[in-house]
Specification:
Agglutinin, subunit A; 2 domains; 5-stranded mixed sheet; Bulb-type lectin domain-containing protein; Bulb-type_lectin_dom; Bulb-type_lectin_dom_sf
Length: about 300
Amino acid sequence: MKSNGNLVVYAYDENNIEEPVWKSYTEGEGGQKVKIYDNGDVLMKDENGNVVWNFEQCKSNKLEISDKLHSDQYICSGNNKFGLGKKGELVHYVNGILKYSKDLGKNGVSNFMKMKSNGNLVVYTYDENNIADPVWKSETSGEGGQKVKIYDNGDVLMKDENGNVVWKLEYNNADNNCKSNKLEIYDELHANQYICDGNNKFGLGIEGELVHIVNGEVKLFEDPGKSYGDENIMVMQDSGNLVVYNGYLDEPVMWKSYIASDGGKLVEIHSDGNVVMKDKYGYEVWKLQDNYINKLSSEIVKDENIGEIM
């Protein structure tokens, strides 16, 4: 365990000189100790007890030919991660912040990612006959790709044997189910659907979380705290409220904008990332303010000086 926060395995070369053959890639993350727990987890923590590395989740910083990742496994460099989430979704974290998440289907927990010898990076799922079917790929067959690696700045690149970049992870809003740039009366969003403008998005995550992304950076990612989140629905009501509810639960309403009767007719996302509600005359009656979401309950936050805000 190094003082710079790296956990390193060394081997002696022919000249009896120590050479690193494996490391956790956590330099500069503040790691102080690595411990194995009763449940088998092997974790590195900083001086405040925060987990900066998980052995089981982070398999390496790269995938080479025939290497695989399964659900909840990643290639990592410090707090940057790329791989498959707990439900087999394609995910990318930069500095610990979720930048990208793509649902890859109902059988996601059985998904696995593989670096193919033809240069394709592919995610497979098993069908009803237990046959592996591709559900996502990098479309780089024949480009000479030899490995996919995540870097200190969060970039995920595929390179050929000469070190030339043949593919870079980039986000496509179409992948994330951008339905429109606005919600009008009775319009709905379901889990993993958003209103979008460029790299700005607002809506519901894969498990029904309230999500706001500005210029590709996640500003708000709040679980309403109920079960069956993938059944959540966001709807613009004719009362002027924007509401998230769950039809599976006895008390379905989990979040709302609390501005009924203020004449709201539509919610739209702008090119600067702002999410606003307007009345029939085009006047703004409500604006999403990420910092005022109560992190414990996701309920309305009230302040006598500023009134009711989301």
